[in-house]
Write a sequence for this structure.
């Protein structure tokens, strides 16, 4: 075997074994095999190289070496003989037959190696066992003495297997119990759900009866069908529409018209009624949607709106018209025959539909809401849980199907409800007005009181620690507020003890009252303004309130407390000279006037440091490691001086800065003594093997530390670099220990010095 | 070989000469032979094996599980492939089986109808081979490490027993009683051997690192104890007494002619002594790994012209030239420590038993097979046809080209 070949083999093996990969590089392996094929000498050489690699204390190396060995084993008789001759050692190194020689880390790789080796030995035994006695012996040794189960690919021990089985059985039991419970639960609540569903269905049908009347009976729920019909045949639709109109008017109130404000907000764009989002309305006012009528119609709607719900924005108040007019106007328009066939009508129908709550359908809507809530919060999660349980435990298909059906129908109901777009806003508004109006409500329905309530009814204001101003004084409550307001302003008229207590509570940041007051401040007053009677000044007030909120709150001192008063004993110090019974010093000036104190009580310093603004810039000076300094100092970095603008690579942007930095660098280098030349030191270090610190010196030139020998292998020492070990390094540092010991011994000594002569302390 | 044969035919050579030459050659060619197997009966380590000397056909083995097995070594099938069958077994189901590990098994030297086994259950049993029932049971107060019957004794039938007790017991098979005690050791006796030359000479090895040679007719004490320094006080450390080893002495074996005595100790040494004078011959065998805490059974070849000694050494058996101490070869095949080995003097075969529960037969590889292989090379195609040979062939696939 020639020298270059030998070298190449060694190189190949080293590369293959130190790759750190789970699989061998096929190209290199091929080359190696090619070399091995030449002669038995090569195989000898390869064998010895492999054995030395197998002896390495790194499982990744061993694994790769083992893989090479198994490749060659299946090919070369000579290699087989060699390996089988030394099979004991081979097993020790790969299967861990010797308990005193465990496989080296990393652990996962060791596990893999072990199982792979066991599998491989088994396959070897199957194909070569008869020819190689020692192989067979080794196999039997593993099987009978080491009790390796070759069937179990995981090469687990018996106890492990048993544990696994136990676990599985336990899981099965748990699943079974769960399935049973779920099935039982389902049985129980199936009825309820069904009834809920039917209820919901009928409610929805009540809300939207047009499905049944205006459209075809066959599909009540799908709106998509109605759309092409109305679009395609606008004329044919007309009679239908009028019918629908009457239906709407008679049955479910004037639902469609409530959309007025919305419509107004939308700019009526030319001929097309853009995106009204209400099919019903479209249908109802097919002929009203032409531009000339638009304005009046909107007005009518607004009027209607106004009447329906009393609380409305003031801005909308101005417009008013008669709603009956609209209907009357609409009808003649239709019957007049103004709409000719040449008259093109574009309807843009959006698929959604809106349902407005009115007095008529209130009960239905509330039922729907309740049902919806019930489904969302109770039924759906439950059904989802069952489905999960059933799928996970692979339970009876019947059960699963039933649960899925249930889920589907529930979801369908929810979906339907969503498609209706029932407008709850008006409802909540009305409810609120109800509560505020009906004082004699007997408190039957108490709205939830816990936590934050932005709107507090008048009669309960005192209870909440608020000034009962609306009733007592005509002025707005907000006007009472001083321009500079403390978190809880002391209302001047408060007299009752209860209110005092509430006030105290407010000061306590943990109490509910304090939170309340804070919230009230935060959500500034528009809410309240909307709830109270709208006044023109409210907006300006809210602005000033905002200003007040922005103004800094500073603690006030004694001077303000006594503002404008003459303080009789300010700055006077009373000397109580002696409290002795008999003995009194000859003359005592009982009171001493202190100028400074007097002045202090009259002067006032208000320190207002401004607001803290976090520093958002970095120092960005280039570091030795090639990174940029990440310190965030406001003005000056303790390491790199004043913070100056720098570019991507950390160079200063301004030329003068750059110059200065260069100068500094030069000066630094000059200060360095000759012998500390980085190159020279590196040479010396290489020769002596001692660290003289050349890395630090030439930091910028020499990148990184000494390169790892095999970068592909996982680093075994790396595991030691955990947070724990780092902490340990810090805590058990020699100097730290010494320092702590010093402190402790000092404390001890002090105690000793103080108390050593006392029996009681001397003992401990 | 041919030269020896012609010389023998011409009457130039002693018949013994040819025999010696051939047996030496065979011993040197000992290999783990795939043709020879021994039935795997023992579930645990094998502590002792013995081959009877009358026919050389039956082998006894005693295992750490208390089981005793008798194998038939003779191959009458006419085929080279042979598995030594277990003729009979004193298994765990046997009523008389030893409760604990069997330490020593020995054939009665004159008859295969009887064998003796001793065990850690503090009993020594004399078995009737036919019925596999103990004819006699000797009970002791402590664990028995070793026992030995004199191979040549005509005037007595004594069994020397080494136990945990430092006193050596002599049991008489004729009366079935313990008739004699030899005192002198200070620690447990790990090995005892009768001289194959003089029927009353007994050698004992103990954990107190001494080896004593006794004449059982003399009650007062041992003849002498072996001294590794041959009486040279300057070399011996502060110890005044004669020690054979610097650790426990756990192996003892006479050469077949009885002129020399071999001892092994836990100091990883083997020493050869002149059994007549007790002189250390100072043959250097190098390091002989020996971790056994019990007795070690090793063996010396018989009828070779330089004699060989086979010593268990870790998981292999080391073969040394007796008088020069040269390491001939290491027989590697066991997967755990080897505890015992026995040389078959008629067939020049070696049997070894180890903790891995295997009994391995080391059979000489004949030169004829070498020639066969050469012929194989010539007509490879024919050889390839047999399945057994295929496993021995290289299987380089063409894609590696």
């Amino acid at each position: 075997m020639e020298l270059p070949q030998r070298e190449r083999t060694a190189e190949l093996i080293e590369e293959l074994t130190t790759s750190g990969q789970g699989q061998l590089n096929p190209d290199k392996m091929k080359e190696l095999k090619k070399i091995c094929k030449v002669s038995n000498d090569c195989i000898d050489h390869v064998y010895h190289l492999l054995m030395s690699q197998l002896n390495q204390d790194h499982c990744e190396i061993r694994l790769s070496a083992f893989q090479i060995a198994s490749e060659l084993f299946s090919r070369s008789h000579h290699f087989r003989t060699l390996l089988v001759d030394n099979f004991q050692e081979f097993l020790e190194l790969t299967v861990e037959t010797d308990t005193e020689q465990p496989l080296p880390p990393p652990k996962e790789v060791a596990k893999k190696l072990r199982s792979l080796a066991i599998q491989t030995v088994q396959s070897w035994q199957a194909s070569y066992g008869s020819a190689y006695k020692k192989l067979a012996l080794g196999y039997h040794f593993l099987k009978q003495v080491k009790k390796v189960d070759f069937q179990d690919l995981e090469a687990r021990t018996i106890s492990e297997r048993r544990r696994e089985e136990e676990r599985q059985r336990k899981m099965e039991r748990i699943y079974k119990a769960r399935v049973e419970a779920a099935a039982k639960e389902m049985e129980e609540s199936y009825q309820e759900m069904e009834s809920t569903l039917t209820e919901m269905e009928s409610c929805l049908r009540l809300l939207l009866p047009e499905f049944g009347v205006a459209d075809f009976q066959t599909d009540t729920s799908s709106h998509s069908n109605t759309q092409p019909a109305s679009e395609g045949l606008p004329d044919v639709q007309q009679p239908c529409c009028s019918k629908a109109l009457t239906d709407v008017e008679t049955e479910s109130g004037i639902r469609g018209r409530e959309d007025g404000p919305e419509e107004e907000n939308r700019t009526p764009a030319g001929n097309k009624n853009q995106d009204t989002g209400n099919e019903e309305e479209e249908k109802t006012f097919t002929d009203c949607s032409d531009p000339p009528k638009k304005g009046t119609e909107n007005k009518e709607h607004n009027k209607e709106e106004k009447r329906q719900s009393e609380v409305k924005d003031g801005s909308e108040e101005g417009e008013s018209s008669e709603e009956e007019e609209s209907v009357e106007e609409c009808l003649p328009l239709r019957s007049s025959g103004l709409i000719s066939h040449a008259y093109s009508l574009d309807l843009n129908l959006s698929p959604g539909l809106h349902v407005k709550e009115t007095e008529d359908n209130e009960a239905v809507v509330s039922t729907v809401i309740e049902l919806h809530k019930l489904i969302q919060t109770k039924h759906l999660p439950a059904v989802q849980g069952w489905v999960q349980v059933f799928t996970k435990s692979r339970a009876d298909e019947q059960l699963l199907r039933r649960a899925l059906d249930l889920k589907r129908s529930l979801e369908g109901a929810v979906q339907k409800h969503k498609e209706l777009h029932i407008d709850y806003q008006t409802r909540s508004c009305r409810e609120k007005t109800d509560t505020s109006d009906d004082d004699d409500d007997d408190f039957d329905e108490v709205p939830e009181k816990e936590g934050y309530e932005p709107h507090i009814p008048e009669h309960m204001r005192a209870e909440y620690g608020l000034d009962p101003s609306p009733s007592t004084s005509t002025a707005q409550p907000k006007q009472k507020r001083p321009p500079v307001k403390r978190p809880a302003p002391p209302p001047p008229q408060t007299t009752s003890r209860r209110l005092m207590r509430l006030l105290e509570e407010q000061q306590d940041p943990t109490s509910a009252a304090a939170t309340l007051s804070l919230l009230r401040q935060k959500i500034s007053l528009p809410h309240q303004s909307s709830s109270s009677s709208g006044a023109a000044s409210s907006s300006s007030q809210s602005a000033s309130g905002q200003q007040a909120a922005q103004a800094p709150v500073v603690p006030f001192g004694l001077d303000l407390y006594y503002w404008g008063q003459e303080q009789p004993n300010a700055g006077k110090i009373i000397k109580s000279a002696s409290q002795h019974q008999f003995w009194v010093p000859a003359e005592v000036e009982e009171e001493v006037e202190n100028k400074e104190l007097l002045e202090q009580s009259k002067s006032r310093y208000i320190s207002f440091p401004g607001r803290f603004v976090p520093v958002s810039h970095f120092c960005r000076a280039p570091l030795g490691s090639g990174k940029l300094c990440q310190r965030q100092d406001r003005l000056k970095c303790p390491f790199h001086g004043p913070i100056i603008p720098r570019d991507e690579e950390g160079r200063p942007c301004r030329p003068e800065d750059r110059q200065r930095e260069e100068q500094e660098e030069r000066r630094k280098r000059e200060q360095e003594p000759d012998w500390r030349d980085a190159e020279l030191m590196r040479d010396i270090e290489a020769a002596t093997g001692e660290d003289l610190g050349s890395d630090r010196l030439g930091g910028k030139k020499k990148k990184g530390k000494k390169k790892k020998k095999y970068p592909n292998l996982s680093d075994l020492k790396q595991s030691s670099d955990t947070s724990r070990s780092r902490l340990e390094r810090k805590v058990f540092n020699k100097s730290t220990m010494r320092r702590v010991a010093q402190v402790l011994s000092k404390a001890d000594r002090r105690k000793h010095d103080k108390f050593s002569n006392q029996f009681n302390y001397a003992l401990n | 070989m041919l030269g020896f044969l012609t010389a023998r035919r011409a009457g130039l050579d002693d018949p013994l000469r040819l025999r010696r030459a051939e047996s030496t050659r065979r011993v040197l060619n000992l290999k783990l032979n795939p043709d020879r197997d021994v039935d795997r009966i023992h579930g645990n380590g094998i502590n002792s094996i013995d081959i009877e000397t009358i026919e050389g056909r039956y082998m006894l083995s005693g295992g750490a599980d208390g089981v005793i097995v008798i194998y038939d070594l003779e191959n009458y099938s006419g085929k080279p492939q042979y598995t030594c069958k277990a003729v009979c077994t004193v298994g765990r189901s046997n009523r008389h089986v030893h409760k604990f590990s069997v330490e020593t098994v020995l054939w009665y030297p004159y008859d295969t109808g009887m064998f003796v086994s001793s065990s850690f259950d503090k009993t020594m049993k004399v078995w009737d081979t036919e019925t596999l029932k103990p004819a006699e049971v000797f009970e002791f107060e402590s664990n028995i490490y070793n026992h030995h019957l004199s191979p040549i004794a005509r005037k007595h039938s004594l069994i020397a027993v080494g136990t945990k007790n430092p006193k050596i017991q002599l049991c008489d098979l004729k009366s079935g009683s313990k008739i004699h005690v030899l005192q002198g050791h200070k620690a447990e006796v790990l090995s005892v051997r009768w001289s194959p030359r003089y029927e009353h000479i007994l050698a004992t090895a103990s954990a107190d690192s001494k080896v004593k040679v006794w004449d059982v007719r003399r009650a007062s004490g041992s003849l002498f104890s072996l001294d590794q320094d041959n009486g040279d006080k300057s070399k011996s450390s502060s110890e005044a007494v004669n020690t054979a080893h610097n650790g426990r002495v756990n192996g003892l074996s006479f050469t077949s002619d009885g002129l020399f005595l071999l001892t092994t100790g836990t100091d990883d040494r083997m020493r050869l002594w002149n059994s007549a004078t007790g002189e250390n011959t100072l043959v250097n065998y190098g390091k002989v790994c020996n971790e056994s805490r019990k007795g070690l059974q090793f063996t010396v070849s018989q009828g070779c012209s330089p004699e060989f000694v086979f010593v268990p050494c870790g998981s292999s058996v080391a073969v040394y030239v007796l008088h020069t101490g040269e390491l001939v070869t290491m027989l590697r095949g066991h997967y755990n420590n080897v505890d015992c080995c026995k040389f078959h003097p008629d067939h020049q075969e070696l049997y070894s038993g180890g903790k891995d529960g295997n009994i391995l037969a080391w059979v000489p590889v004949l030169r004829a097979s070498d020639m066969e292989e050469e012929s194989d090379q010539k007509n490879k195609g024919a050889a390839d046809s047999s399945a057994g040979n295929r496993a021995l062939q290289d299987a380089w696939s063409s894609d590696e080209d």
Observations:
- The first helix of chain B runs from residue 2 to 10.
- Residues 204 and 272 of chain B are 15 Å apart (CA to CA).
- The interface with chain A takes residues 32-34, 40, 43, 315, 332-336, 356-358, 360, 388, 391-397, 399-401 of chain B (CB under 8 Å).
- The helical segments of chain B are 2-10, 15-28, 367-378, 380-385, 387-390.
